[in-house]
Amino acid sequence: MRETVHRHLGKLVAAAAVAAVGTAAMAAITLPGTAGADTSAGASGGTRAGQDADAVRPGVVERAPAERGRGTGRDPLTDDEIRRAERIALSRQPLTTGENVDGGRGPQRLSVDLAEPGPGEADGPAAPRRADLAFYDYRTDTLVTTTVDLDTGRAERTGAQRGVQPPPSRDENTEAARLLIASPLGAGLKADYKDATGKELTSPDQLLLSGGVYRAAPGAQPAVLDQCGVHRCVRLFTKVRNGPWIDTRSLVIDLSARKAAALDRR
Hints:
This protein is α+β, with helices and mostly antiparallel strands. The model is unreliable at 1-62 (pLDDT under 50). It has helices spanning 2-8, 16-26, 49-54, 79-89, 170-182, 187-197, and strands spanning 108-114, 130-137, 142-149, 154-161, 207-213, 233-240, 245-246, 251-254, 259-262. Strand 8 and strand 9 form a beta hairpin. InterPro entries: Cu_amine_oxidase_N-reg. Residues 38-128 are annotated as: Disordered.
């Protein structure tokens, strides 16, 4: 593992999936006032205080304010609507007894999206406001979907399926990385992180993470991963913040069993 991961250190993983998920993480932002800046001292060794005072300061990126209240028609769901829809959904079976990715009470939220209007319903500004929510219950390895009518405050439809595995959420990728770091199989990842940064890797927060669902295939994995597809299993793509990729594609984390395993790469 140590040798394999290190061989890929500092290189973009060639797989198209990695290129797609990594584009946003690697995008550079050019801040105003930095191009062509001259920070050297003047010929006499003094600083150019007058020019510095007039220089354009670097831009500051601020978090977007929370969207409150109620949207209209096909407007995206506001923060208040998302919270309300989740609260209504979680008050109904089978979500009341669910378990999330780190073993806490309540199922793991995967997504909340504005629902499409039904047949014969108005579109545009007069469209009804409904939310489609998806949760994963780690207690039963079940995907639970529900639709909430935000006008009436009622959950209209709820369904449960096993063996259906949507893409992992950010929280699931984070928990998968935490399990990998704590596992003996994470030794190579930690060693390569130290090679790249000179620091110890102790937390998923030190990495940029994306992931994909792994499903078991006959003869393609050790027996410990045979339940992947019924269990929630993730393959991680890991990148040092402001640094290189570290190849962890041969490792799979079974979030349901909370175990990591290495694929046979022969």
